[in-house]
């Protein structure tokens, strides 16, 4: 383990000054089992996504039926914080419990079911980055080896940006936690640096959030209706431009008389919210947009799917 601390000490010297120069909250990271791992072990469930059946991970089942899984996820999280103690680790169990409480409240208030269970868990984690873990225990004679894949993933867009994989050395131990620790520790410093580099990059280019804005059947306006000097479409576009990084992402849009869909708009990671500098998420931008529409006489509400998808409903 001395080698791990030596590697990570060098890493901290390289990036520590960068953290000191940035006025921001540290990255929040949640370590989760990869969908491939969940599929291979039968830890999945089906989700009806607008008529399309999707297979999604069942994190609660995985953690309850695989006794070693939570220990493995915790071990990976510990290796990350060994390399950078500024990183905040979000416990997946806490995120699951928060999502269950959220779902119970939504059901009591006749909430919709447009959000999948895994999206709800990720939303309740409020993580910036997910680390997806896949591992297999391989037996060869009296020895065991572990193969692994770690993927740093943007929690808002699901984009993989830091894949690392490998195979551990042979051992007579069949403990996957021990074998995984030994297998991945040499890669943890560069892997953790990729996580922090990605987070720092969002300071300059912003965090990408998708917007699906639509009028409802009872709405008195369309996207082409005049709202003040401009049409509703133009007002929304101008708002998103003013609340983004140089309007990046606004060109990727689908539109019609009743809807606007932006594939991903880059919004500032840090913004002034209620008079204070805070880390900004999709719900913050959504609330600003709803407030802006209300100031212009347009009633609207929002719903967040996962962390990076905003649905705006104009009444």
Strand content: 25-35%
Question: What is the averaged pLDDT score?
Answer: 89
How many beta-strand runs? Answer: 16
What is the ordering of alpha helices and beta strands? HEHEEHHEHHEEEHEEEHEEEEHEE
Structural class: alpha+beta
User: What's the multimeric state?
Assistant: single chain
Low-confidence stretches: 10-23
Helix content: 40-55%
Q: What strand line-up does the widest sheet have?
A: 4-1-5-6-7
Radius of gyration equals: 22 Å
Number of domains as seen in the coordinates:
2
Measured distance between first and last alpha carbons: 59 Å
Anisotropy-based shape: elongated
Tally of helical runs:
9
The largest β sheet comes out as: 5 strands, mixed
Task: Summarize the SSE layout with pairings.
Blueprint lengths: L1 H20 L6 E6 L1 H6 L3 E6 L2 E6 L1 H7 L3 H15 L4 E3 L1 H17 L8 H9 L3 E12 L2 E12 L5 E8 L8 H30 L1 E9 L10 E2 L2 E2 H11 L10 E3 L3 E9 L2 E4 L2 E4 L2 H14 L4 E6 L3 E6 L1
Parallel strand pairs: 1-4, 1-5, 8-16
Antiparallel strand pairs: 2-3, 5-6, 6-7, 8-12, 9-10, 11-12, 13-14, 15-16
Helix pairs in contact: 1-7, 4-7, 5-6
């Amino acid at each position: 383990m001395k080698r791990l601390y030596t590697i990570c000490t060098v890493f901290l010297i390289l990036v520590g000054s960068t953290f000191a120069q940035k006025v921001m909250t540290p990255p929040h990271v949640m370590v989760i089992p990869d969908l491939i791992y969940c599929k291979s072990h039968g830890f999945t469930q089906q989700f009806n996504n607008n008529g399309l059946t999707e297979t999604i991970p069942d994190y609660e089942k995985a953690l309850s039926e695989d006794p070693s899984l939570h220990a493995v996820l915790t071990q990976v999280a510990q290796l990350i914080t060994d390399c950078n103690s500024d990183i905040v680790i979000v416990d997946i169990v806490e995120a699951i419990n928060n999502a269950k409480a959220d779902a119970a409240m939504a059901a009591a208030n006749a909430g919709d079911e447009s959000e999948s269970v895994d999206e709800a868990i990720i939303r309740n984690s409020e993580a910036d980055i997910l680390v997806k873990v896949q591992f297999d225990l391989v037996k060869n004679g009296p020895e065991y080896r572990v193969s692994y894949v770690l993927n740093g993933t943007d929690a808002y867009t699901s984009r993989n940006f830091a894949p690392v994989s490998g195979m551990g050395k042979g051992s007579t131990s069949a403990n996957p936690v021990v074998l995984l620790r030994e297998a991945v520790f040499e890669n943890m410093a560069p892997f953790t640096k990729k996580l922090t580099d990605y987070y720092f990059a969002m300071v300059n280019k912003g965090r990408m959030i998708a917007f699906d804005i639509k009028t409802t059947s009872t709405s008195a306006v369309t996207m082409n209706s005049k709202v003040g000097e401009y049409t509703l479409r133009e007002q929304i576009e101008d708002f998103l431009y003013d609340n983004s990084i140089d309007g990046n992402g606004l060109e990727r849009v689908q539109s019609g008389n009743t809807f606007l869909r932006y594939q991903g708009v880059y919004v500032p990671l840090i913004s002034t919210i209620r008079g204070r500098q805070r880390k900004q998420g999709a719900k913050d931008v959504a609330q600003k947009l709803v407030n802006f529409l209300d100031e212009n006489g347009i009633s609207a509400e929002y719903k967040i799917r996962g962390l990076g998808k905003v649905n705006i409903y104009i009444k």
